[in-house]
Design a protein that fits this description.
It is built from nine helices and twelve strands. The protein is an alpha+beta fold and about 350 residues long. The strands form three sheets. The protein has a five-stranded antiparallel beta sheet with strand order 2-1-5-4-3. A five-stranded mixed beta sheet has the order 7-9-10-12-11. A two-stranded antiparallel ribbon has the order 6-8. α5 runs antiparallel to α6. It starts with a strand and ends with a strand.
Length: about 350
């Protein structure tokens, strides 16, 4: 069974637990048996209150999407069903509780990923249509300006026509960016640490003495088949966003120096879309800045969404497109003082 099953007596002391429960709680049946629920779930008061209500009112209760604090820094999301039962022991009627706990983090992540992918495809199709409709008149405006530039001998008028040509080219370039990268990937054997080191040197040169750059690499990671320049663009966009957010909100670090961490790890049995991969590479880019505003977190990968006055809102959209082209996944967690963007790429 994948569901953790625990049996408590009338005093809410654990009588027995199945192997899935041992795995969920990171403890053995020997060390858990006889412990009160308050001790086993000492940092998850909502669970204990649910047990107490079910026992007192003798009714089954189901709680959805509860957060369990298993170990420091290890929170999981679960569905919890508590069912009171009565049984006779040596002729005495006793009340007990059966608790079923199902971890749903993976299901929630897959649902979130599917929703994000469908939203991404919808917005991408709209933007491609917009790009086509905008570029046609832009081409006509540019062509007319070029003809006027060739026909006039007045330097002041030529300055105006060249402004029109320059701005038309700028808008055309922005429309191309909105539609996303359309050139095929140049796949070759790439070491992810070469990419992060390239970006690290660029960030250090662009923001000298403004941010502490930290690396935490897994040296056992094998090479991957990827487009080096495209992945550099992704990691650089994420890094610049992080540094700029820290510089714009210096109070967010609580007096600590601005810090950007590049961390690589191997993750096993990880699903991307409808494919479960045996192993994937994970690259975390973590900063200690102000975090992403909660109202923007659900739309942060949409084009033209930005909190920066001078930003185009295209960086994260382009990053997502490039990672999707690599059959990978990019997601994030964010709170004040800690934002982590994680890139997952298959290693098979």
């Amino acid at each position: 069974m994948e569901t953790a099953v625990l049996l408590f007596d009338s005093d809410l002391r654990l009588k027995t637990i199945n192997p899935a429960g041992e795995s969920l709680l990171h403890s053995s049946i020997k060390s858990l048996t006889g412990k009160p629920a308050q001790a086993i779930f000492s940092t998850s008061k909502n669970c204990v209150r649910t047990f107490e209500i079910a026992a007192r009112e003798h009714r089954a209760i189901t709680r959805r999407e509860l957060t369990l604090h298993i170990t420091p820094g290890n929170d999981i999301t679960v569905d919890c069903t508590v069912t009171p039962i009565s049984s006779y022991h040596n002729g005495v009627l006793q009340s007990e509780l059966i608790v079923e706990i199902t971890q749903i983090d993976r299901l929630l992540r897959l649902a979130r990923e599917e929703h994000m992918h469908s939203q991404y495809e919808a917005s991408r199709n709209v933007l491609r249509g917009m790009a086509h409709e905008v570029k046609n008149p832009l081409g006509g405006i540019r062509g007319a300006a070029q003809l006027l530039d060739m026909e006039t001998n007045d330097p002041s008028l030529r300055e105006f026509t060249r402004i029109i040509i320059r701005e038309a080219d700028r808008l055309s370039g922005m429309v191309d960016k909105m539609a996303g990268p359309n050139k095929p990937l140049q796949l070759k054997s790439v070491n992810i640490h070469n990419i992060t080191e390239d970006v690290r040197s660029l960030v250090a040169a662009e923001f000298p003495d403004m941010v502490k750059l930290v690396t935490n690499y897994d040296p056992s990671l094998p090479d991957i088949q990827a487009d080096h320049d495209a992945l550099v663009q992704v990691v650089l966009n994420l890094s610049r966003n992080a540094v700029q957010a820290m510089l714009d909100s210096p109070e967010a670090t609580g007096g600590a120096p601005n810090r950007l961490i590049y961390r690589t790890r191997v993750t096993s049995r990880f699903s991307i879309g409808d494919v479960t991969h045996r192993i994937v590479m994970r690259l975390d880019i973590e900063d200690n800045g102000p975090g992403i505003p909660e109202e923007l977190q659900s739309t942060v990968f949409y084009p033209l969404i930005t909190t920066k006055a001078t930003g185009s809102g295209l960086g994260l959209s382009i990053a997502q497109t490039i990672i999707n082209q690599h059959n990978g996944l990019i997601e994030f967690t964010s709170e004040p003082g800690k934002t982590v963007f994680s890139i997952y790429l298959p290693l098979e």
